[in-house]
Amino acid sequence: MSIQERILKSYKPLIAIPVIITLIALVILATVGLNQGIDLKGGSTVVIQLQKDTSPAELKTIISDGIGNDQVEVTSISNNQATVEITGQADLVKLTNALGGTGSIISFQSVGALLSTQALNQVYYAIGFAFLFMAITVFIVFRNFVPSMAVILAALSDIIIAMGGMAIFGIPLSVASVGAILMLIGYSVDTDILLTTRVLKRREGTINERAKDAMKTGFTMAAAAIGSMVTLYLVVVFLIPYASTLGQIASVLIIGLVADVLATWLMNLGILRWYMEARR
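Above: the chain sequence. Below: its structure as tokens.
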């Protein structure tokens, strides 16, 4: 028996799986919380060309002692290049003097408190408006409460699970990760509308046949998307570790795309089948 047939055969109990994972993600977000990236909390990002072998702990100590700031994090070291994040404003002259013969600064970016506050507010507005307009569009397209709510709940589950994964793996909330969340909203709605349109509006074949046809297309899309994001993440880790922005985007999308498979094909499909059988 194939995966599609197993899901279609026992769909009601399977609805609980993404629901439980979503609730766990909510608990994690409430207890652990999300770290904010430098672009949202303010601070400096420095890329250093190391002149000798230096461990992350040694580099952190050198910079912290030199600039008098213990809120220093070495996010990556590869190919003699280190990326360092410093909370708060960092003095470039002090930082250069602190490094001495350890390395030289090749990139320095600083974000002030006012700009970071404005960026954080824009993040909340972006996510809120994207979700609101998505919900309005779904209701206009289907004009049916239960299928529309199933699509919206699936998208909401994707976002919550993705953010819970960010909390677990220490992925900061930044402009990059927010962009990935917005992409997740679009991708989730795409797969959910694919499912709902084929099952609800088509008339040829049985409900199971239409659902199975949608699952084949959906699984192919999900496999291609997850595979491409895994490839991007591995390229960043092993070849271009200083491209942390791409790494954050890939990480969030991998978590969210896996969550979308569960939310769409277990929860949304289960609710939709339950609704159609009850109506019939």
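Residues 244-279 form the longest helix (36 residues).
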